Amino acid sequence: MKNTENTSLKLLFQALIVGIATGAVVGVFRFGIEKTSGFWLHLFELAHQNSAWFLVIIAGFLAVAIIAGYFVKQQPHVGGSGIPEVKLELQGKLSVKWFPILWRKLIGGILVIGTGLFLGPEGPSLQLGSSIGQGVGEGFNQTKTNSRVLLATGAASGLSAAFGAPLSGALFVLEEVFHNFSPRVWMNALAGAIASNFIVSNIFGQHPALAIPYNYSFPIPLYWHLVLLGLVVGVLGHLYKVGLFSFKKVYKKITILPRWLHGIIPLIILLPIAYYWPLITGPGNRLILSLSNTITAQGWVTVGMLAFFFIMRIVFSIISYDSGLPSGIFLPILTMGALIGATYGSFMVQLGLLPQRLVINLVIFSMAGLFAAIIRAPFTAIILITEMVGSLLHLMPLAVVAFIALLVDELLGGRPIYDSLAQAMEGKNGVAKSAGREDQLTVPVYESSQLVDKKVADVKWPHNTLVKMIRRGSDEIIPNGQTQIMAGDMLVLAVDQNRRGEVYDMMKKLQGVELDG
Predict the structure, then answer these.
(1) DSSP state letter for 76
(2) Largest CA distance in the chain
(3) Are 93 and 199 found together in one domain?
(4) Which of 7, 36, 54, 69 is deepest in the core (most CB within 10 A)?
């Protein structure tokens, strides 16, 4: 027991190291994006005075596309958000070298996101953190199981540092990435997330990321608006996912440029957008914060302008992300959600069905709703918006909109976007496998699992798979054939390292439920 406690304390200490290092790296990442974004906005201001500056901007954009694209060509897993890679690593289906990913993602992300493309830093921040977690695990010669815990800790720390939201960082990794709520995971993930948030708070201050003025509770007699808004958000979220996967086929047909230079396309489209509407460029936080002023202007012109901005954001967000550049979609999703809420609310105000002062409430609610519909992590959506806005007044209406939006996407046949991206990635970009050594896989047993109430001996386990331990609450049970499996158990399986991902998939089928939650 004492050895177990010492091991847990050592792992917790290493988790804190991961959190501190991640906070420092993501702090540099955010600072770099902020300064780069200001640089490009200044150049566009100069272009308004002298069109010759467009030549400088075009040359700079081409340089960004070539540098970032070359990074992706060298290391394909540098492209995109990095969250699907982290999911595959935790499932044992992917193995990458952490340092080549780390520095390329850091530099490439700053260059790309800083231009003003409709892309966010949160996914890359998560991958930066997971890379640091992997590096710390290797540095301390940790076991495969503990290394995965540190990788998950790094992912939570990265998201925490990106949003200034430690609870959401830990919860997202547990709910959507790791799919494991064991104490070993959540305790270390939360410790790392808190440590990373402490570091970035000392750099950027302790204010909420989206401190939107919010003074009125949403009255219960008007909750029918939440139902309608949830339906709208759910449908639009589903359409966004369909568009994101469909447009990849368009890029495949563009053969005039090699795949690694497709980033040139969105950067060219960005030129007129940044020239005429600089406020709506970038991840979207500036646009979200400006909505509190925009929605006070009454009139159908405001409704039309907000709808136009949403259409532009959803279309160009897809074009930007599918180009394959290092980038994320977290904050762009929240921005689109905010625009949906603002458009819906302003529309209802014009019809006389909603007080003007409550439109800002719908902006906040629809951010959570769109996140829940697209990412399929409703608990994270609720806590994330709460932390980012800095208010607890809206938990109930947030939950209503998030649940309805999630239900609509479910009825339309939607899947979690990162699961779909990870599945599309399997078998591509060099999924590495190491020598056939024993590895460990922890599988949760849900209430609806077909394993519940069965004895270990009565289960047809995957070939060469051994149930080493059952974690039940705070107890660790060494099972025998007559040990009964109960809902809430965590099954610790010994598997061939080469077959870890295969066994994971087989366990999903064996349980008759999705391990992905």
Answers:
(1) G
(2) 81
(3) yes
(4) 69
Report the number of distinct structural domains present in the chain: 3
Is residue 387 one of the residues assigned to a domain? yes
Per-residue tens of pLDDT for the chain, all 517 residues: 455 556 788 999 999 999 999 999 999 999 999 999 999 999 999 999 999 999 999 999 999 999 999 999 999 999 998 999 998 888 777 888 999 999 999 999 999 999 999 999 988 999 999 999 999 999 999 888 788 899 999 999 999 999 888 999 999 888 887 666 667 788 899 999 999 999 998 877 767 777 787 778 899 999 999 999 999 999 999 999 999 999 999 999 998 999 999 999 999 999 999 999 998 999 988 898 888 777 776 788 889 999 999 999 999 999 999 999 998 898 999 999 999 999 999 999 999 999 999 999 999 999 999 999 999 988 899 998 888 887 777 789 999 999 999 999 999 998 888 888 888 876 555 454 443 456 777 788 877 788 888 888 888 888 778 888 888 766 778 888 888 888 778 888 888 776 777 787 788 788 775 544 3
Bridge partners for 440 per DSSP:
494
Global pTM reads 0.85
Q: Report the CATH number at residue 148.
A: 1.10.3080.10
CA distance 324 to 326: 7
Task: Choose one of 424, 443, 474: the last residue of a domain.
Answer: 424
Cα distances (Å, whole numbers) of residue 425 to 85, 131, 305, 438: 8, 19, 37, 25
Are 479 and 375 part of one and the same domain? no
CA distances from 312 to 22, 37, 266, 306, 335 (A): 33, 20, 13, 10, 12
300 and 381 fall within a common domain: yes
Residues 233 and 186 in one domain: no
* Whole-angstrom distance, CA of residue 44 vs CA of residue 61: 12
Question: Are 135 and 99 within 8 A, CB to CB?
Answer: yes
